[in-house]
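= Tokenised fold =
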Amino acid sequence: MPEIGYFCLSEPSENGGNMYRFDLNGWRYGESSIQDLAAKVRRHVPGATLPTHLGGKAFGLSLAQVLCGDVFTIPEWNAATRDHPLPEDLQDKHLQGAFVRSNAPDEDWGDPRAGVHESKYGSFAYGFQKVVDQLMADCDGVVVQAHAYGVGVVIDLGWSELLQRNILRVAIGGPSMEGGRKVYTSPTWDNEAAVGIFDAHTGEAIVDLQPHSFDLRRVIDKMVKEVVPRLIEWGIDFGLQFEFLAELNDMRDRMVARLGDRYRPRDELVQIRPSPGALQGTVELPTSMGTLLVTTGKVNQRGSVTAELFLVGGPNVRDPLELSRNLHITGEYGTDFDELEPIKPLIAGKIALWDIGALERYGGSFYQVLGGWRLGAVAQLSSHAIFINSAHGTSLPTYRTDGLIRPVFEEARAAGLLVAIGRDALWDLRMSLRNNSVSLQILSDGLVGQVYRL
């Protein structure tokens, strides 16, 4: 069994506020074990049930129950190994089906790649046991978790070096159609999720979000008023990632109409893990320069770049070199094509600015971005998210990762600094490039990105 990580302990500051740091690098994977964390928690919650032998997912759900069970709803779950099967009455308890998640020893807590092993939804009418058997064979253990329906929300709690405060970076899934009905995506795989930034101690919006599908302020307030103070009290000072399925407004309204003040919204906390490796990093950031253009939570990793900007045009831009198409070709096939020669000096050493509409959706954008790296771009900017580092490369749905897409995704996401800056900032830069060259400094601390115009 692999060793599963240790955390650094420090005493809370006198005011329990911004001087207390939830260090993104505080959980060092593979150097110790979760027994230390379990013992730490039990000193504050005597008798807390925190099994350290059942697997990483079971430990995370047990920690969620101890930490947040009185604040959020934890969907009912059961852990099973090859020697200890699932309860026989499982189908009676979960009539709508259940999520089947890997419960390998390294899941979440022992490997910096969040979502190392695949999780699936299984209907009892269609092959549920086959899903369980497959994951059991792959991972030696599974967690079966009650079906929950809502908006996928991922909250990363950590210290932002750029903002000099602990923040909650909140990524929210969007509406999608599945089997003729509206469902909502999860930021664990949806790279186009909306992202906001909030102060972890006050709830102040730094980059605001106004979702219409659910009450985000309800979730933020619970985190700020209940969960963050409890973590400080317990001396837990490493970054954490929380995954929710938040209750939709229409469901809340129906239940309030039926039950009145007796009803409490069910915001379901389905996973807790340390900050994944995609959020960590030790690259030293330089001092910021120039004029701040934008602050964003849509970043793929930690890093910094200073360089001149180059526009990759969209469908409404005259583009005799067919940049978007040729960058896709470069990503899919390589750089050994004569038509790429005029493009190489334009891209190499530059920051690629993808105009609105220039990036293809889903798998196509992976090839385009990879093509930019192969031709020498030092960073890439877009109006919307390309790769949010709350998304887990190994957790993308199968239809998005068939064939070559998975390795393309993983290489393109990790090859260089990617930041989404929004339409207004992109339009400002695009207009400036009409008459002058533009140079930028891009900084990312792993949670927050900032773009400065030089």
